[in-house]
Specification:
This protein has about 325 residues and is α+β, with helices and mostly antiparallel strands. It has nine helices and eight strands. Among the domains are: about 1-145, Beta Polymerase, domain 2; about 275-330, Methane Monooxygenase Hydroxylase, Chain G, domain 1. Strands 1, 2, 3, 4, 5, 6, 7 and 8 form an eight-stranded mixed β-sheet that branches. Helix 2 (about 55-60) runs antiparallel to helix 3 (about 65-70), helix 4 crosses helix 5 (about 145-160) and helix 6 runs antiparallel to helix 7. The longest helix has about 70 residues, at about 225-295.
Length: about 325
């Protein structure tokens, strides 16, 4: 695949002419030629490395400066769709990879859709886009249906990455629930909170994108999205609804895992306190007896104090009391 390096990043492009010939390249003159081919299709993908990549967009397209700024600045913009008449500007968020011990880092993808072109910009590598490019390289028919179909393919590839991450979060919660019941160690609450934060990030990415797909599917942009293509955006909308439903269910499971952890810890503490209380109760009368017989009077009047059988009798009494208390506790199932 032809790749052109520029000051602010790198460019990859596909151009399918009106005659069906597919060309790979990103030369400025070829882009202008592709834009003039009303029945052709141009896809330009820009890996933005600095705001200087905006110069390429300004030199080769008639995009609004605000849209170009949103495409190249480092801040993370929320998902949205802006209608500029001759083209629409879409911001979506891709989820690239999942690490149970780290927070999800969404990758912003900015897409321009025109009558015969699609321009995608992203500041980090997006496996969904890279994978779709490889598909286009192997099967050029992926570019044979127009710009609106290409937009659908890109958005569908991005949203398809959500479900594996949601499934991975589900597996993480299952593992935490098993650990809670087997061995509730102190690191579990932190991991549960990490899962909750990641679920919240998925939800924040899903909700606004669902509205975008709804607008694309209901024929709001007839100049750019044909009726036969609009229905396919409904499928992406349904995927996002499913993701949102699963996320809400997983949030409930995460809350349940945290409550289970707190209950297990509380029960364990109660068991420990019960044993300590039983031990203290057993030793309380023994301490009383030993304290009484340990008082230092010049003339002790306690029974058997000066007799040879005194100590064995007192010690036996103390053992008998301890055994009796333990037997009573066992009978009442307190220990």
């Amino acid at each position: 695949m032809a790749v052109e390096m520029l000051t602010g990043g790198q460019i990859q492009a596909f151009y399918r002419s009106s005659t069906g010939e597919v060309q790979e390249g990103a030369d400025g003159s070829e882009i202008q030629k592709a834009l003039s081919d009303e029945r052709g299709l141009l896809w330009v993908d820009i890996a933005v490395r600095s705001p200087d990549a905006g110069r390429f967009l300004a030199d080769n397209f008639t995009f609004h400066p605000l849209a170009i700024e949103d495409s190249v600045v480092e801040r993370m913009d929320p998902a949205k769709i802006d209608d500029y008449g001759d083209y629409i500007f879409i911001v979506v968020q891709a989820l690239n990879r999942y690490d149970p011990n780290a927070e999800l880092e969404p990758a912003e993808v900015d897409i321009f859709l025109g009558p015969n072109y699609v321009v995608s910009c992203h500041r980090t590598d997006v496996p969904a886009i890279s994978g779709f490019m490889e598909r286009c390289k192997r099967n050029q028919q992926a570019l044979a249906h127009g710009a609106d179909w290409l937009l659908h393919a890109l958005l569908d590839a991005i949203v398809d990455e959500y479900l594996p991450i949601v499934d991975a979060l589900d597996e993480t919660i299952d593992g935490l629930e098993e650990r809670v019941l087997q061995r509730a160690d102190g690191g579990i609450p932190q991991q549960i909170m990490m899962v909750r934060r990641n679920l919240l990030r998925v939800r924040r990415a899903t909700l606004p994108q669902r509205e975008i797909m709804n607008r694309l599917s209901r024929g709001e942009f007839p100049k750019l999205i044909r009726q036969e293509a609009a229905i396919y955006f409904r499928d992406i909308y349904d995927h996002l609804v499913r993701v949102e439903y699963l996320v809400e269910s997983l949030r409930d499971l995460a809350d349940g895992a945290l409550n289970t952890y707190l209950s297990v810890v509380s029960n364990r503490l109660n068991e420990v306190m019960k044993v300590l209380t039983a031990a203290a109760t057993v030793f309380l009368p023994l301490t009383l007896i030993s304290g009484v017989y340990g008082m230092n009077f010049s003339h002790n009047q306690f029974p058997g104090f000066e007799e040879p059988w005194g100590f064995p009798v007192v010690a036996g009494t103390m053992v008998a009391i301890a055994v009796a208390l333990l037997g009573y506790f066992r009978y009442r199932r307190w220990i």
